[in-house]
Amino acid sequence: MNYYLILALTLLGYMTFWFIISIIKKRNDIADIAWGLGFILISWSGLYLAHTSLRGLLVNLLVTIWGMRLAWHIYKRNLKKHEDYRYAAWRKEWGKMFFLRSYFQVYLLQGLFLYLIIQPVILIHYNVSSNLEIFDLIGLVVWIIGFYFESTGDAQLKIFISNPANKGKLMETGLWKYSRHPNYFGEVTQWWGIFIVALSIPLGFITIIGPLTITILILFVSGIPLLEKKYAGRKDFEAYKKRTSIFIPLPPKN
Predict the structure, then answer these.
(1) What global pTM score does this model have?
(2) What's the pLDDT tens digit per position in 78-119?
(3) Closest by Cα among 58, 57, 54, 200 to 143
(4) CA 199, CA 125: separation in Å to the nearest integer?
(5) In terms of CB atoms within 10 Å, which end of the chain has fewer, N or C?
(6) What are the φ/ψ torsions at residue 20 (nearest 5 degrees)?
(7) What is the 3-state secondary structure (H, E, C) of 141-195?
(8) Cβ neighbourhood burial of 79 (10 Å; 0-12, 13-18, 19+)
């Protein structure tokens, strides 16, 4: 069977499994935990089905570190809390169509995006080239920068929120002083780093669909727009917006 088809079917089964778990648990935000773990599954499945190489092991290590950290972070964040407000709102809005729309609009759609984003990794495994080149080093450095921003941004926000004195306040210190969404900037940057690694192999440039997909999702669809909408209208947030870059970390404006 075709390599790409096997991975697609693996992903279909994986997302269906998590949909069933969501029904049992009665919370759709479990899809956020499945997100990072799904990348790990497809990365190692691709390596098993295709070719083992130093480059393949490198990108799999990067994906695994990113996916495990993200899944654990979301699991700890949601522990002992009610279903995320976004999914809770859809539960009410979709009514009798809830299960059908959840399967297609949450799990299968998420699986499609995952499959597009991970294309650089899939092609790296399919290619027999194994000697590391300059693009591998550049990509690794870019990934490390992204991982720093995502992990540090999340950690700083977690500490801030855990302090009762900060209840109802905005996070405006640390990395959040330079970007309103440093964790999202870090996530996107990591996938551009992996794409740069893919430039080391023939036709690697065609996998640009991966980083472009995650960039568009974060900037214009399900990432930043939803959070910005949540805080829109608050005086402190409007002031924060005027002096702080929305995405790329930059010195704050006076």
Answers:
(1) 0.93
(2) 887 888 778 888 888 898 898 999 999 999 999 999 999 999
(3) 58
(4) 13
(5) C
(6) -65, -40
(7) HHHHHHHHHHHHHHHHHHHHHHCHHHCCCCCCCHHHHCCCCHHHHHHHHHHHHHH
(8) exposed
